[in-house]
Amino acid sequence: MGATPYLSLDAEVMQANIDAMAEHARRYGMVLRPHAKTHKSPAVAEVQLTAGAQGLTVATIGEAEVFASVCRDLFIAYPLWVDGDASARLTSLSEAGVRLRVGCDSETSGRNLAGLPVEVLVEIDSGHHRSGVAPESAGALAQNLAGLGLTVLGVFTFPGHSYSPGSGEAAALEEAEALARAAASLREFGIEPAVISGGSTPSASFSTSVATELRPGVYVFGDAQQVELGTIQPEQVALTVVSTVVSHAGGRVICDAGSKALAADRAPWASGYGRVFGEPDARIVALSEHHATISWPGELPALGSTLRLLPNHACNAVNLADSYRLSTGELWSIPARGRNN
Amino acid sequence: MGATPYLSLDAEVMQANIDAMAEHARRYGMVLRPHAKTHKSPAVAEVQLTAGAQGLTVATIGEAEVFASVCRDLFIAYPLWVDGDASARLTSLSEAGVRLRVGCDSETSGRNLAGLPVEVLVEIDSGHHRSGVAPESAGALAQNLAGLGLTVLGVFTFPGHSYSPGSGEAAALEEAEALARAAASLREFGIEPAVISGGSTPSASFSTSVATELRPGVYVFGDAQQVELGTIQPEQVALTVVSTVVSHAGGRVICDAGSKALAADRAPWASGYGRVFGEPDARIVALSEHHATISWPGELPALGSTLRLLPNHACNAVNLADSYRLSTGELWSIPARGRNN
Prior knowledge:
The structure is a homodimer. The first copy, chain A, is an alpha/beta fold. The first copy, chain A, has helices at residues 11-27, 42-50, 61-67, 84-95, 107-113, 138-147, 168-188, 201-204, 224-229, 259-262, 314-318; strands at 6-9, 31-32, 56-58, 73-79, 99-104, 119-123, 152-156, 195-198, 213-214, 239-247, 253-255, 275-276, 283-287, 292-295, 306-310, 323-326, 331-333.
């Protein structure tokens, strides 16, 4: 045990999560390309790759540079704006033997990619309403990108609207319909999509058709959001923040993990700023940078005792730490932390 | 300019913020002991100390270890639970010549401090309802701590309930009343409080009596919360996240700074997930890890153009970065980033 708060990783629970998703992808004949932004750790990626992942997804060129050490097939699932510096970095990655795919949702952005050693996937909006073109517009964009000399491999989307209670299945259906329409749109322009890529953790179990590739991220660890969405059970969460009870002020538990350890994420439907492992009725009612204020049913845990807290959003909690501590005491580093560009 | 997103620091605006707070403290005869958790940077602390700060406040022993390089008078304003490892670290700091003060809100926690080279301030709750005892109980706790052989210097509080629109003055009044009651409580037990410490950025300008010491943090940079609270004007914000427009999907601006650059903080009263510098009517309506979705009035800025975004909460945005970029191109490192324990 070290000074609190720290990130604790249960490697057995993680392995079970990784195996289950790999089995799901195999059963439905999909390529599994997990999003590495969740764990930011080549050590974790190697477990995923050993279990059957066929490539990795990343969010930034900086993450691609980190994961190139363990994987030669990377998809930067982001509508990159590529300037001169970014071009040089993409070229270096390619020269190092990495096959690179990047996202694109406009011809303007695509012009920056022309001549670079990357393949392109057209991003479509399947209902999350973030980046991406309408599915019906995918073919026209793909044709324009091909006209720039780019290789258009197919289409991708992120069904982020699955992050609402009870929405996983509906989002997966919308995703499948949107991907099918986008694929048809490409075919209208004579482009056969080799890759039809989707997936998020809450929708992944319902993604069983249309998509040829699945890109979930959070499933590797789980978090309080996934528990509250009903995607997983609390005992399937592999990542917790170990924290010490420092005060009983106001008859509540105050512990030393705040938004600088758990991150400040709180969806409108969340019960609080995270959960307490093994205490389903405890509620994290307030979060400062170094304090969690927990409404606690029954007798309070003693001052100095430790609690395991589930972050609401694993990806952002991981991005605050430099390493995972395993139950063996071993530390796994998080070298992609902070690689935002 | 570097790859986006990155943290940009306007050193002139910061200097003006630092000078104004130092002048306020001088005018009312208060010691200024800024909270370094906001900037996590010895370089910034040196500017504060040169302008008249007489010591620094930190949140963790790890932060104290970083700031010992520039300041020999540190207050860990936190109800520390000190185990063996923490004892050794506090002792090392003291042996290196640092005068250490720590917070305490229970006799149980105080027992761990007995025999250590630290002075103690009793934490009281002035209305924020986080850690701290009731003001009336401060004297009894101080007596018990003194009975353990500890030197009780005085009392402190954080008026965090100032973080609500229009609450700065009311919170400062409550703070002053609570500090006065706590000081009286100590005197009832024959302990004269040498230090009566309070202050937060939204309440600081109203803190003009009772407190002998002021500990604001965010004032050094400002952020979207302070603008929306009315504490400062937008042009007084020294810290922005420079971000590139990557998509116009859905007729909105999507740029490459998300919750991994801005942090996910959003108070219930906030207009969005931050603000856009120079665009008062733009609203950051959604935030993913690497996307800000901005509702934009009028013509959208071109793909590839850069925006300066104001984080809602400077402290958490800083804790995501490894350095500040100044307008000169110079980088200032953030060595206390991630020093949560």
